[in-house]
Write a structure and sequence with these properties.
Layout lengths: L1 H23 L7 H4 L4 H11 L11 H17 L9 H5 L3 H28 L4 H12 L19 H10 L6 H7 L2 H16 L7 H4 L6 H14 L6 H8 L9 H6 L7 E6 L21 E8 L16 H6 L8 H24 L7 H37 L5 H63 L6 H27 L2 E7 L3 H62 L9 H39 L2 H34 L1 H4 L5 H20 L20 H26 L1 H9 L3 H17 L7
Parallel strand pairs: 2-3
Antiparallel strand pairs: 1-2
Helix pairs in contact: 1-3, 1-6, 3-4, 6-12, 7-13, 8-10, 16-17, 16-18, 17-18, 18-20, 19-20, 20-21, 20-22, 21-22, 21-24, 22-24, 25-27
Length: 771
Amino acid sequence: MEDEREDVQKKTFTKWINAQFSKFGKQHIENLFSDLQDGRRLLDLLEGLTGQKLPKEKGSTRVHALNNVNKALCVLQKNNVDLVNIGSTDIVDGNHKLTLGLIWNIILHWQVKNVMKNIMAGLQQTNSEKILLSWVRQSTRNYPQVNVINFTTSWSDGLALNALIHSHRPDLFDWNSVVCQQSATQRLEHAFNIAKYQLGIEKLLDPEDVATTYPDKKSILMYVTSLFQVLPQQVSIEAIQEVEMLPRPSKVTREEHFQLHHQMHYSQQITVSLAQGYERTPSSPKPRFKSYAYTQAAYVTTSDPTRSPLPSQHLETPDDIGRSSMETEVTLDSYQTALEEVLSWLLSAEDTLQAQGEISNDVEEVKEQFHTHEGYMMDLTSHQGRVGNVLQLGSQLIGTGKLSEDEETEVQEQMNLLNSRWECLRVASMEKQSNLHKVLMDLQNQQLKELNDWLTKTEERTRKMEKEPLGPDIEDLKRQVQQHKVLQEDLEQEQVRVNSLTHMVVVVDESGGDQATAALEEQLKVLGDRWANICRWTEDRWVLLQDILLKWQRFTEEQCLFSAWLSEKEDALNKIHTTGFKDQSEMLSSLQKLAVLKTDLEKKKQTMDKLCSLNQDLLSTLKNTLVAQKMEAWLDNFAQRWDNLVQKLEKSSAQISQAVPTTQPSLTQTTVMETVTMVTTREQILVKHAQEELPPPPPQKKRQIIVDSEIRKRLDVDITELHSWITRSEAVLQSPEFAIYRKEGNFSDLKEKVNVGYALNFMYFPKFCCL
């Protein structure tokens, strides 16, 4: 397995170096390990990366190679590249592991950190891997088939790479064709080709190296960073926080996982799919809260106290030694060297356990302590073989019979001490693990109970809010909107607890693990459904409240404006004189004012229709009987005031008509009516053509009719008769008979009488003109 990973890294790192050499105009390398041994090609690489000219030794001896590599290491140190445990001899000797480590540190510095330094500074973050994972998850969150939680297994099927490219460049290919029609290898080949020919990224990986159970993390990181370099680089704080909430992988390699699986029970990832809560539609406002699915990390412990995850080491018997396959001769010096190394590590492990400190009361801190201790336990497991080897060496050394009695006693005491300290450390670490399990489960169960109680309380709260009718006036509605905002704020606060439960650490017994996990999954599903329902109800009600508030405000605004307009016109009509005119001009001024009012009424008639429409729209959404009654009362009041204004306008016109004989005997009723009509028509024309900016019509000229004395006498008689007829007509209108006509809605007789009077008027004065 280690050889496979080494081969992948060798191939990937070689491609990366050659991609850099192509940029610098340098010759490519063929073998990563042998071509870097003399240090020259390493200096060529650093020249291109640093932009500095680096002199090289021209000789071909080992000394020249060591000098070249040392120069390269000095350059790396000046650029703050990590070089722990890497020396010039390691590179010159062609040490595969350390050569790969050196190149990875170069890639990490110039390819990863250097590319991401600006965004890391802006976000005040120092972990480049976390930023990169946050960017990937933020970019692919709209792809349900993709869930990237690491830089290994999440990339095997090829969907993540395609989704990452498609999220930023959807114009390059059709996503559905990638999902439905291709295998993992084909999808990876597709992504690499798109990246190369459309984005200019070299094909650093081969599909078969990624389409495996456990791809190489460093190779994936290097390639994803190349994509990050050419694609938009937005990363939100929310995306970083989401990554921080992901379950942390245990600090153990895949090889160690397989080697130690028979000794230790490992963590299992159990994903429970739950209702996701409200999903915002394009027309709805941005939700201020969100719901999560719950992911449980179930750490299975054994129910048999004799089977511990960390087996103890005991001193082997001579029979055990005889059965051992060790054929190398053991010396006292080699035993002492091995013993000192193990004791040094054991002392460090004891200090590390002690430094973990007391278990916290905060659930998030306990989770952190749990994951830290899990890594610590993995470290103990990986080193327990070294303890056993030292004990075996000591037993074998004693069995040779070459030691003096004092030496043998000393070795025996050393072995007993080592075994005792190891056993104490093992027991203490197991006890710490057990205590962490208990405290963490207690805190998480408390969280579940608190969430359940909060959901019950909030469900009752929403039921009460649902039953309360909206309104009955706009101030009450505003109060209900504020009340709903408080509920939203409570949801945001509770979201913290929901986030904490997003990744639970569940400890179950091996004997009843399946049943306990199934029960917990069902409990979490119920809680998740209830949480999602509250989120949806809160969002839907918020949209409804905002819609009603907007409609109510529009209705109220139109209502106030129309009421003010009615008051203004009522006051204007009350100020118009209808009797006691001093001369003809005063009377005509009143007629003109009446005509203007008549025009305003005609134009404003649409406002009444608009108010009725707004009222119906609001009531259809509000569904409140009390509010409907209040608004109908308002509209009835407006209609009554409107009718009163129209009737008073007509009455004022009639009063002016009655005042004609007293003001100007020569001005007939027909003159008054024509004047009103003429003024009204003029006002309508002015209104109709105001936007066309036509010049005002010239003032009307007075036309005088020259008549002899005989005609004048006849005119006076006719005016007197006409005035008498008008008086009689008014008397008829005020009579009980007219009341009956009005009640029955039959005005045919009355219209006939009025038409006869007007016919007589026009018959006697067909050519009468006025101003």
